[in-house]
Specification:
Layout lengths: L1 H18 L2 H20 L3 H23 L4 E7 L2 E7 L5 E6 L4 E5 L4 E9 L2 E8 L4 E2 L3 E2 L2 E3 L3 E6 L2 E6 L7 E4 L13 E6 L5 E7 L4 E6 L1
Antiparallel strand pairs: 1-2, 2-3, 4-5, 5-6, 6-7, 6-8, 9-10, 10-11, 11-12, 13-14, 14-15
Length: 216
């Protein structure tokens, strides 16, 4: 039992030192020293049991800390100017995007961020990053965000609606007589989800800008 507990103790130390914040590490060092002292002085089975219970709960605490870590987005200065840097949960760089004059980072939900670069009016290149799952979307041109879950955009005169991060999960192309405008997506007045999860699309149709509403 002593050998198994020793292995467990080493595993907990590694988890703490590899994954926990610095202040947490300093706090836990006191307990590690106490455990080592008790291990050196222990003579009864009850002490072993107490130590095992303590290490069990400590392991769970460390695992919760690790699971709750998220990625992050930072704007950093470089020799070539400012860049938007995406980090994963292990603080590894996922992507780096050079900032132009009109680059914006907008927090949409607790986890979802929108990174947009405006190159005209209206002309925006946008992508999304989820700091919880560390997923990065592809870049969309003048997209319409739907319920922070779907994205809509125009491609070759057709409306495309897809999952933000995974087109294999959901992607649908809709061909209609959309009114031809300078910015094709401006023919779409709105896209929402109804109570049953169906898309409600309102758009301009034909040369007379007839307003049409559909539920898909």
């Amino acid at each position: 039992m002593g050998r198994n507990m020793g292995q467990w103790f080493i595993r907990v130390q590694l988890l703490v030192f590899l994954h926990c914040p610095t202040h947490f590490i300093f706090d836990m060092q006191r307990y590690f020293r106490l455990i080592i002292f008790i291990q050196q002085k222990e003579t009864t089975i009850s002490v072993r049991i107490i130590l095992c219970v303590f290490l069990f709960f400590l392991t769970n605490i460390v695992m919760v800390i690790v699971e709750n870590r998220t990625g992050k987005i930072l704007i950093e200065e470089t020799e070539d100017g400012k860049v938007v840097v995406l980090y994963d949960k292990q603080n590894h760089v996922i992507d780096t995007v050079s900032c132009i004059e009109k680059t914006s980072v907008t927090q949409l939900t607790d986890d979802l961020y929108e990174i947009a670069q405006s190159v005209g009016s209206p002309a925006r290149y946008v992508f999304y990053y989820d700091i919880k799952t560390c997923r990065e979307s592809e870049v969309f041109f003048n997209p319409i965000l739907i319920e922070n879950q779907y994205i809509a955009y125009m491609e070759d005169g057709e409306l495309v609606i897809c999952d933000i991060f995974n087109k294999d999960m959901y992607c649908r192309t809709i061909a209609r007589d959309f009114t031809k405008t300078a910015d094709p997506v401006s023919a779409i007045r709105s896209i929402t989800l109804d109570g049953e999860g169906r898309f409600v699309i309102e758009y301009y149709q034909g040369e007379m800008y007839e307003i049409v509403s559909e539920t898909l």
